[in-house]
TrEMBL record:
UniProt keywords, alphabetically: ATP-binding, Kinase, Membrane, Nucleotide-binding, Phosphoprotein, Transferase, Transmembrane, Transmembrane helix, Two-component regulatory system
Organism annotation: Saccharothrix xinjiangensis
Segment forming the signal sequence: none
Residue ranges of every copy of the DUF7134 domain listed in the record: 5-159
Occurrences of domain Histidine kinase/HSP90-like ATPase (ranges): 288-377
Name of protein: histidine kinase
EC numbers: 2.7.13.3
Length: 394
C-alpha cells in the first residue's frame, strides 16, 4: 500500500470513528456501560456502519445504502433508542462528491427522509416556547443533510473545474511545443535547403570546369565555402536563440539580402535587387520573414530555372506594408526536382499567416516562376477568424 493510500484509509477510519462516537453520544439513550447488553448491541451496530464507511470512497452509493438501511432499522430491530444521523450525512457527502446527479439526488432524498424520521420522533410540544424551540431544531436537522449534499456537489464541481484547467494547461503546453517544433523545422529547412541547393549546383559546375577552366573551378569552390560558412553562421544564430542561458543574437533580415545574391549569381543566374520606397525599421519577425521569402524565392530559381536565367528581387515599401517579389524568366536549364523538399512554400505560408501576411506563388508572365508576399510593417498578429494566407501553386 502506498503512503498516499495509507493516509487516505487512516483519514476515512478516523472520520468514521468520530461520526459513530458522536451519534452514540448525541442521538442515543443507550447507557455507556460495559455491563449493559444494550451498549454492546449499539457497538455491534456501529461496527457494521464503520465497515461500510471505510469503503465509501470506492463504493459511495453502496456504502450510503447500507448505512441508511442500518440507521432506519436499528431501532425497530434492536429496541434501542438510537436514531443515528452523522454517519448518514458522512456517507451522503461521499455520494454527492463521487456520483452522477441522478444518484446524488436520490441519496439526498434518503438523507432528508432520515432527518424527517428523527424530527418526527423527537418533537414534543407542550407550550409555545417549546414549539419555537422544536421548530428551530427541526429546521436545523433538515438543513444538515441539505448542507452536506450541497457541500459535496460543490467539491465535485471544484474538482472537475480543476481537472478542466489542468487539461487545458496540458493542451496549451502541447500546442506550444508543437508550434515551437514547427518554427524550428521551418528555420532549419530555410537555412539548409538554400545552402545545400546552391552547394550542390556549384559542385556540379565546379566538376565540369575543373579541367577546362581551373580558375573558374577555384572560384566555384570558394563560393561553396562561403555558402557553407553563411549556413553555419545562421545555424549558430538559431541555436543561440534556442538557448535559455544566453542572450538572443541578431537574426538575418532585410539588411542581409545582398549576401543572398552572390551565391545565386555564381550558379549562373543573373539576379538583381530592386528597392522601391524608403526602407524602414520593422518588427523582428517581419524582418526575418522578408529574408526567408527572398531566400525561398532564390532557392526556387536555382532549382527550377537553372543557368542562364534572369531573376529580380523587388522590395516595395508603401504605407504600413512591405511587398516582396521574386520573379524569374524560367531560363533554359533543366529543373532539379531532386533538390526539392516539398515543404518550402508550406512552411513559408505558416510563417506569414502568424504575422498576418499573404503569400502568392505561381507562374510568371515570362514563363518563369513568381513568389510574392505582402507583410504588415508592424507585424500585427492575425485575428482568430482570419483565413490562412493564400498559396497558389503553378
Amino acid at each position: 500500500m502506498t503512503l498516499g493510500r495509507a493516509r487516505s484509509v487512516l483519514v476515512d477510519a478516523v472520520l468514521a470513528a468520530v461520526a459513530c462516537a458522536m451519534d452514540l453520544t448525541l442521538y442515543s439513550s443507550v447507557p455507556l456501560r460495559a455491563d449493559d447488553p444494550r451498549f454492546w448491541t449499539a457497538v455491534g451496530y456501529l461496527g457494521l456502519v464503520f465497515g461500510a464507511l471505510l469503503v465509501r470512497r470506492r463504493h459511495p452509493a453502496a456504502a450510503f445504502a447500507v448505512v441508511l438501511v442500518l440507521a432506519v432499522l436499528v431501532e425497530p430491530l434492536t429496541g434501542l433508542h438510537f436514531r443515528p444521523a452523522l454517519v448518514v450525512y458522512l456517507a451522503l457527502f461521499s455520494v454527492a462528491v463521487s456520483c452522477r446527479k441522478e444518484v446524488a439526488v436520490a441519496a439526498l432524498a434518503g438523507g432528508l427522509a432520515c432527518a424527517v424520521r428523527i424530527v418526527s420522533r423527537t418533537i414534543q410540544v407542550e407550550s409555545v416556547e417549546e414549539l419555537v424551540v422544536e421548530a428551530f431544531a427541526a429546521v436545523y436537522l433538515m438543513a444538515l443533510p441539505l448542507a452536506t449534499w450541497v457541500a459535496g456537489r460543490w467539491v465535485r464541481t471544484s474538482r472537475e473545474h480543476a481537472k478542466d484547467l489542468e487539461a487545458r494547461r496540458e493542451l496549451e503546453a502541447r500546442q506550444a511545443v508543437a508550434g515551437e517544433r514547427a518554427r524550428i523545422a521551418r528555420e532549419l529547412h530555410d537555412v539548409v535547403s538554400h545552402a545545400v541547393t546552391v552547394m550542390v549546383l556549384q559542385a556540379a559546375g565546379g566538376r565540369r570546369a575543373l579541367h577546362r577552366d581551373p580558375a573558374r573551378a577555384e572560384r566555384v569552390f570558394d563560393t561553396i565555402g562561403q555558402v557553407g560558412e553563411q549556413a553555419m553562421e545562421e545555424l549558430r544564430r538559431m541555436l543561440a536563440v534556442l538557448r535559455t542561458d544566453g542572450p538572443e543574437e541578431p537574426r538575418s533580415g532585410v539588411a542581409d539580402l545582398p549576401r543572398l545574391l552572390d551565391p545565386v549569381r555564381a550558379v549562373g543566374v543573373d539576379v538583381a535587387l530592386r528597392v522601391v520606397g524608403e526602407p524602414r525599421a520593422v518588427e523582428p519577425g517581419v524582418d526575418l520573414a522578408v529574408y526567408r521569402v527572398v531566400q525561398e524565392g532564390l532557392t526556387n530559381v536555382t532549382k527550377h530555372a537553372g543557368a542562364g536565367a534572369r531573376a529580380e528581387v523587388r522590395l516595395t515599401w508603401s504605407g504600413d506594408r512591405v511587398e516582396v517579389e521574386v520573379v524569374d524568366d524560367g531560363g533554359e536549364g533543366e529543373p532539379r526536382r531532386d533538390l526539392s523538399t516539398g515543404h518550402g512554400l508550406a512552411g513559408l505560408r505558416q510563417r506569414l499567416a502568424v504575422l498576418g501576411g499573404d503569400l502568392t506563388a505561381g507562374e510568371s508572365h515570362g514563363g518563369g516562376f513568381r513568389l510574392a508576399a505582402v507583410l504588415p510593417v508592424g507585424g500585427r498578429l492575425v485575428p482568430a477568424d482570419r483565413p490562412p494566407s493564400r498559396v497558389v501553386q503553378a
